[in-house]
Amino acid sequence: MKVDQAFEVAASPDAVFAFLDDIPAVAACLPGASLGERSSDGAWGGTVAVSLGPLDLTFEGTATVTTEPASRTGRVSGSGVDKRGGSRGRIEIVYEVGPAGAGSQVAIDADVTLAGPAAQFGRTGLIEEIARRLMADFATCLEARLAGEAGEAAGPIKGGRLLVGSVLSSIASFFRRIFRRG
Q1: pLDDT digits 0-9 by tens, 28-56
Q2: pTM as predicted
Q3: Residue 62 belongs to a domain with what CATH number?
Q4: Considering its fold, how many domains does the chain have in total?
């Protein structure tokens, strides 16, 4: 599934891009992420914890990051396995940092693939809402870090609450349509 997100940061594009090129700093701002060692081939090991509905998942895997400073763009290719539940995930992210007013905008285009039990609960709306919350928390941490404050990542994003909210919203929308017709 495709997920497109963008967020603004009150810092220059060069400062934001430099931050995004610092993988340990990025991992420290990603909710649920824990960075491991860097291998000899340049890939980073680590884990990402997330809840999708009733599933609490911890994906263990690797990610490779490549950047192009001249265009302030980057690519992240990652994959991981939740060893407890057998779910697998793969993500391809392309990002670009550009000017926005007095600050910057970070545009993210991600392609997320889930397999195993996570695929049953990882419907597009839920993944998009998790991505939106993750990016909002990440942007807050990034701004704090760039301002010299001790910004920290929030805990893992809990998809169960998002799922309940999504279901309630769908039910309310259904009844609104019925009452408009009647």
Answers
A1: 888 888 999 999 999 999 998 888 767 78
A2: 0.76
A3: 3.30.530.20
A4: 1
